[in-house]
From TrEMBL:
The keyword Oxidoreductase applies. InterPro entries: FAD-linked_oxidoreductase-like (IPR029041). Keywords: Oxidoreductase. This is Methylenetetrahydrofolate reductase. It comes from Falsiruegeria litorea R37. One of its GO terms (molecular function) is oxidoreductase activity.
């Protein structure tokens, strides 16, 4: 396959590029798993060079597959950021081995540190704070450590409702950010409505939590697929946006695209430059190619893939 490169564009399929959306999408990141990455012939045909690509570590995925995916992304010119899910890491020695493998294979110096989606820990760790406290990321010279953020209340974290546990964890992570040389940021769960995100980010600022926010956005996918993932991931009140759309059965098989939430957040950021959202992070629920194409067609990086001259 002939490799594609990227060229400046000033219009998208539906007309001129929206400059606020274009600015908001600059430097976006995207997420893959080893099994989905294996289906992509060449990421250079889909993503601008240096795009940060998170590698999701799902329970049961061998570390060898994770490290090989990180190496492949690095070799193709991308910025690999693997997940470190606390509950599937047996002990400190296992964590040290993972870090060593990533650095040996792909010179990785960044990671998303999170609790993970399994109910019971596989070993010594149950939350991201315990991983950070090992000191291994600092010893390995990690330059970027991202931790999870939840714009909407999450019953897995706060079973009684509210945000008491969530904010206690964020307070700890903010204090940790002052003790590490790594740059820290909040990479969030996705939701489907801008206002809950705006309210949450403003609340963070009021509480003095000044970590940059990389806002999670669900990429285009069939409505049924989107609802399934949203329920599984504990998405909160903004799920009603999808449920309302689902009442029209003619729309169930049509893709749901993030145009509205992206446009609203971009406009808010443009009007409030100090707003803490720094980047957009895509969850490609409908496929990497579909998501990458949507980003290109909506001004992401102001680029489009073209055949070399």
């Amino acid at each position: 396959m002939a490799l594609l490169n990227f060229k400046k564009r000033d219009t998208v399929e539906n007309g001129p590029v929206n400059p606020t959306v274009e600015a908001f999408l600059q430097g976006y990141s995207i997420e893959v798993m080893p099994r989905t990455a294996a289906k992509v012939e060449d990421f250079r045909a889909l993503l601008p060079a240096d795009t940060r690509v998170y590698i999701a570590h799902i329970e049961g995925t061998p570390i060898e597959d994770m490290a090989a995916t990180a190496k492949r992304l690095k070799d193709e010119g991308f910025d690999a950021m693997p997940h470190f899910p606390a509950r599937i890491i047996k002990d400190k020695a296992t964590l040290a081995d993972w870090i060593s493998r990533y650095q040996g294979e792909a010179e990785v110096k960044q990671g998303l540190i999170l609790a993970g989606g399994v109910a019971e820990p596989h070993g010594d760790f149950s939350d991201s704070m315990q991983l950070l406290e090992t000191g291994l990321f600092d010893q390995a010279g990690f330059t970027n450590l991202h931790v999870a953020g939840h714009p909407e209340p999450n019953l897995d974290i706060d079973p009684k409702g509210g945000r008491a546990n969530t904010y206690a964890a964020l307070d700890w992570k903010l204090e940790f950010s002052k003790r590490t040389d790594a740059q820290m940021a909040l990479a969030t769960q996705f939701c489907f409505e801008a206002q809950p995100v705006i309210d949450w980010v403003n609340e963070l600022a009021e509480r003095g939590m000044n970590l940059p926010v990389h806002i999670g956005i669900a990429g285009p996918a069939k409505l049924q697929t989107m609802i399934k993932f949203a329920i599984a991931c504990g998405v909160g009140p903004s799920l009603k946006v999808l449920q309302k759309r689902a009442k029209d059965v003619t729309k169930l098989l049509l893709p749901h695209e993030p145009n509205e939430i992206i446009t609203d957040l971009a406009a808010h950021k443009a009007a409030n430059p100090d707003f803490q959202i720094e980047k957009v992070h895509f969850f490609p629920l409908g496929g990497i190619k579909t998501n990458a194409t949507w980003a290109i067609n909506n001004g992401g990086e102001s680029t489009r893939p073209v055949n070399p001259a």
